[in-house]
Amino acid sequence: MRTTLPSGRPAALAEPSTGEAVAGLVIIPDLWGLRPLFEDMAARLADENRWRVVVVEPLTETGLGSDPSVDFPARAAAMRGLDDTEYLDDIVAAADATHCDRVGVIGFCAGGMYVLKVAARGRFDRAVAFYGPIRVPDHFRGAGHVAPLEAMSQPGATPVLAVIGGQDDLTPPDDVAALDAFEHVTIASYPDAGHGFVHDPSRPAHRPDDAADAWARAITFLGST
Predict the structure, then answer these.
(1) Could you tell me the CATH number of the domain that includes residue 169?
(2) Cα angle vertex 42, ends 170, 151, to 5°?
(3) Which of 28, 31, 68, 185 has its CA 20 to 30 A from that of 79?
(4) How far apart are CA 53 and CA 41, in angstroms?
(5) Is residue 80 pLDDT above 90, yes or no?
């Protein structure tokens, strides 16, 4: 079901089909936005785990949203002009919109990077970053961006499971080592995987066996509080 957050940002809400929700989950999409892929994901996770799930639309400040006609270079260029504060506030607002005491957060690609950034807010019980860049990539770095590693260093930051592809140029070994140095971070590494190997089966990078294993680890981690 489509909805909006108090700021007016578009979102999607999925409820368990039977029974009351036992916990909440916020999903942060990749740069291509809130589209059927993520609505279907939210519905599946809600039913399988009895979670109330909210998916938050990125890039609404730029007017791009999930418009499929907008290509990646335009989306990356739009990222450079953003101030993270509003989006991070809305990710926290999405947690509140679940009306659950215990809330997790997951994100993919750029959304995974925002998982690392929002960890500093201390609002979430557990967080899973699927191949989120550990440093803001040059192609969309802007003055208003929070540094993920700086956010992760804040006292009380949320425990994070970072799902990493060993062949992913956006998560080079030195960056992974810097992230792994935090006591509240667990790394799940897949040596033969590239960027985006879990969440979208239509991508050439998708690896079904690795994706299934990563999902199992993520669900266990999110339920471990």
Answers:
(1) 3.40.50.1820
(2) 40
(3) 185
(4) 9
(5) no
